[in-house]
Amino acid sequence: MNTGFGFxxxxxxxxxxxxxxxxxxLPALLREIARMTARLRRYSDxxxxxxxxxxxxxxxxxxPFAEQQAKKKELRAFCISARKKLGAESRAEKSSIIRGxxxxxxxxxxATMIMMYAEMGAEVITLPAIRRLLSEKKRIILPYGIDGxxxxxxxxxxxxxxxxxxxxxxxxxxxxxxxxxFFRSDLEAVVCPGVAFxxxxxxxxxxxxxxxxxxxxxxxxIPLIGLAFDCQxxxxxxxxEYHDVAMDKVLTESGIVAGGGSAVTGKSDPLRx
Length: 273
Known about the structure:
Blueprint lengths: L6 H15 L4 H33 L6 H20 L3 H16 L2 H4 L3 E3 L11 H9 L3 E7 L6 E6 L6 E3 L5 E3 L14 E4 L3 E3 L4 E2 L5 H6 L8 E4 L5 E2 L14 E4 L2 E4 L15
Parallel strand pairs: 1-2, 1-6, 6-9, 7-10, 9-11
Antiparallel strand pairs: 2-3, 4-5, 7-8, 11-12
């Protein structure tokens, strides 16, 4: 920071002091100018340090890629273990409540073409919801893995009990005979699983990036809804990369826990049985 006192300014001040006050005042004036200059320099250095600190605090902290991937792996293992510990009976009961929250959403009531998922492993059970939505004349679309890639294809199903088969990756998928061209731009809502979520809607998948790649061009255009159990919700923010896609809402047995305000009330599931 410039103190405002250059050589020419100092020379002018000295000349004026000699003319108006005499040479006797010159030493005292020079000492006072020196003190003022030192004080201004200390002040300007302090301001500079404070501005540098503020600037550094506003800069995004870059987490090394390897460290970020290790953290994601750790969180996946933790949440998969927590989900498995629920047990079949508890998982079925909680899934029943979550399905009740799901079909109560205005986003699904207003949508005609809905992308769902059929559960695998210890995920939230969705098959009863698929049957219900089909009975309401909704068009249900399921994803499938495209061989040799990490990409998802989508196909429409008509009967939950006959049109869903176990694919090569052990994931429930639409039968191959149904895999005709279906444009993702025709979707009006997407319901997807996740290994973990945070309370901002951040989603952690299985690590292949299939859903993130598929959902990227849909983000902000249609509702993206994640389903999970409470034990999969993380209070810390998930590590986020440029290709990750957050959910508009996340539903658990507690209701809408991310992105949508207050929880849905009621514990009954009209789909049960």
